[in-house]
Design a protein that fits this description.
This protein has 142 residues and is mainly alpha-helical. Helix content is 72%, strand content 0%.
Length: 142
Protein backbone atom coordinates (compact mmCIF):
# COMPACT_ATOMS: atom_id res chain seq x y z
CA UNK A 1 0.00 0.00 0.00
CA UNK A 2 1.22 3.48 -0.92
CA UNK A 3 1.52 5.75 2.14
CA UNK A 4 0.52 9.40 1.67
CA UNK A 5 2.26 11.76 4.07
CA UNK A 6 0.62 15.02 2.97
CA UNK A 7 -2.75 15.34 4.77
CA UNK A 8 -4.11 17.69 2.11
CA UNK A 9 -3.40 15.20 -0.66
CA UNK A 10 -4.92 12.47 1.52
CA UNK A 11 -8.11 14.54 1.82
CA UNK A 12 -8.29 15.00 -1.95
CA UNK A 13 -7.81 11.28 -2.52
CA UNK A 14 -10.50 10.43 0.02
CA UNK A 15 -12.91 12.81 -1.72
CA UNK A 16 -12.03 11.21 -5.04
CA UNK A 17 -12.60 7.71 -3.64
CA UNK A 18 -15.91 8.75 -2.08
CA UNK A 19 -17.01 10.30 -5.36
CA UNK A 20 -15.96 7.19 -7.27
CA UNK A 21 -17.91 4.91 -4.95
CA UNK A 22 -21.06 7.02 -5.19
CA UNK A 23 -20.66 7.35 -8.97
CA UNK A 24 -21.12 3.60 -9.24
CA UNK A 25 -24.65 4.02 -7.87
CA UNK A 26 -27.14 5.19 -10.49
CA UNK A 27 -29.52 6.82 -8.01
CA UNK A 28 -29.91 10.53 -8.56
CA UNK A 29 -28.92 11.58 -5.06
CA UNK A 30 -25.83 9.38 -5.13
CA UNK A 31 -24.61 10.75 -8.47
CA UNK A 32 -25.19 14.32 -7.29
CA UNK A 33 -23.35 13.80 -4.01
CA UNK A 34 -20.56 12.08 -5.97
CA UNK A 35 -20.29 15.13 -8.22
CA UNK A 36 -20.12 17.50 -5.26
CA UNK A 37 -17.37 15.39 -3.68
CA UNK A 38 -15.38 15.31 -6.92
CA UNK A 39 -15.86 19.03 -7.56
CA UNK A 40 -14.81 19.87 -4.00
CA UNK A 41 -11.70 17.72 -4.48
CA UNK A 42 -10.86 19.57 -7.71
CA UNK A 43 -11.30 22.94 -5.99
CA UNK A 44 -9.16 21.79 -3.07
CA UNK A 45 -6.47 20.39 -5.36
CA UNK A 46 -6.20 23.57 -7.41
CA UNK A 47 -6.50 25.83 -4.35
CA UNK A 48 -3.71 24.07 -2.47
CA UNK A 49 -1.40 24.28 -5.46
CA UNK A 50 -2.16 27.98 -6.05
CA UNK A 51 -1.68 28.78 -2.35
CA UNK A 52 1.73 27.10 -2.27
CA UNK A 53 3.10 28.07 -5.70
CA UNK A 54 1.55 31.49 -6.32
CA UNK A 55 1.88 33.16 -2.94
CA UNK A 56 1.07 36.60 -4.34
CA UNK A 57 -2.33 35.46 -5.56
CA UNK A 58 -5.14 36.57 -3.28
CA UNK A 59 -8.07 35.81 -5.54
CA UNK A 60 -10.68 33.22 -4.61
CA UNK A 61 -11.91 33.10 -8.21
CA UNK A 62 -11.66 29.52 -9.52
CA UNK A 63 -11.41 30.72 -13.14
CA UNK A 64 -8.38 32.86 -12.25
CA UNK A 65 -6.80 29.84 -10.54
CA UNK A 66 -7.28 27.80 -13.72
CA UNK A 67 -5.78 30.63 -15.79
CA UNK A 68 -2.72 30.55 -13.51
CA UNK A 69 -2.38 26.79 -13.95
CA UNK A 70 -2.53 27.18 -17.71
CA UNK A 71 -0.01 30.04 -17.59
CA UNK A 72 2.34 27.82 -15.51
CA UNK A 73 1.91 25.05 -18.14
CA UNK A 74 0.32 22.75 -15.55
CA UNK A 75 -2.83 22.16 -17.62
CA UNK A 76 -3.67 22.52 -21.28
CA UNK A 77 -6.28 24.87 -22.64
CA UNK A 78 -8.50 21.84 -23.30
CA UNK A 79 -8.18 20.54 -19.74
CA UNK A 80 -8.95 24.02 -18.42
CA UNK A 81 -12.04 24.21 -20.64
CA UNK A 82 -13.26 20.80 -19.46
CA UNK A 83 -12.62 21.55 -15.79
CA UNK A 84 -14.56 24.81 -16.10
CA UNK A 85 -17.41 23.04 -17.92
CA UNK A 86 -17.74 20.35 -15.25
CA UNK A 87 -17.27 22.80 -12.38
CA UNK A 88 -20.00 25.03 -13.81
CA UNK A 89 -22.34 22.03 -14.06
CA UNK A 90 -22.75 22.43 -10.30
CA UNK A 91 -24.98 25.44 -10.92
CA UNK A 92 -27.56 23.21 -12.61
CA UNK A 93 -26.86 20.08 -10.61
CA UNK A 94 -30.44 19.31 -9.67
CA UNK A 95 -31.61 19.57 -13.28
CA UNK A 96 -29.11 17.01 -14.60
CA UNK A 97 -30.29 13.53 -15.65
CA UNK A 98 -28.77 10.56 -13.78
CA UNK A 99 -27.01 9.15 -16.83
CA UNK A 100 -25.56 12.55 -17.69
CA UNK A 101 -24.28 12.91 -14.11
CA UNK A 102 -22.67 9.47 -14.22
CA UNK A 103 -20.79 10.42 -17.40
CA UNK A 104 -19.79 13.84 -16.01
CA UNK A 105 -18.52 12.18 -12.83
CA UNK A 106 -16.49 9.64 -14.79
CA UNK A 107 -14.79 12.34 -16.87
CA UNK A 108 -14.29 14.69 -13.91
CA UNK A 109 -12.59 11.89 -11.94
CA UNK A 110 -10.10 11.49 -14.81
CA UNK A 111 -9.39 15.24 -14.77
CA UNK A 112 -8.86 15.15 -10.99
CA UNK A 113 -6.33 12.33 -11.38
CA UNK A 114 -4.57 14.40 -14.06
CA UNK A 115 -4.46 17.38 -11.70
CA UNK A 116 -2.97 15.23 -8.93
CA UNK A 117 -0.30 14.03 -11.34
CA UNK A 118 0.51 17.45 -12.84
CA UNK A 119 0.35 19.52 -9.67
CA UNK A 120 1.65 17.15 -7.00
CA UNK A 121 3.37 14.40 -8.99
CA UNK A 122 0.94 11.88 -7.48
CA UNK A 123 0.29 9.00 -9.83
CA UNK A 124 -1.24 5.58 -9.37
CA UNK A 125 -1.87 2.86 -11.91
CA UNK A 126 -5.46 1.94 -12.74
CA UNK A 127 -5.10 -1.14 -10.56
CA UNK A 128 -3.73 0.88 -7.63
CA UNK A 129 -6.60 3.37 -7.93
CA UNK A 130 -9.06 0.47 -7.87
CA UNK A 131 -7.33 -0.93 -4.77
CA UNK A 132 -7.45 2.49 -3.11
CA UNK A 133 -11.20 2.83 -3.81
CA UNK A 134 -11.82 -0.71 -2.54
CA UNK A 135 -9.88 0.02 0.68
CA UNK A 136 -11.84 3.21 1.21
CA UNK A 137 -15.10 1.38 0.56
CA UNK A 138 -14.17 -1.19 3.22
CA UNK A 139 -13.17 1.61 5.59
CA UNK A 140 -16.69 3.04 5.18
CA UNK A 141 -18.24 -0.44 5.58
CA UNK A 142 -19.98 -0.23 2.21
Amino acid sequence: MFIITNPQIQTIIEQLCFGTILSENSRKRATHIAFISIDDAVITCVGIYIATKNEGTISNDFDIWLDLLEKDNKITVYEKKDIKKYHNARKNLLNQHDMVMMEINKRYIVLLKILLAYLFDFRLSKLDWEKRVKEYKQKLNL
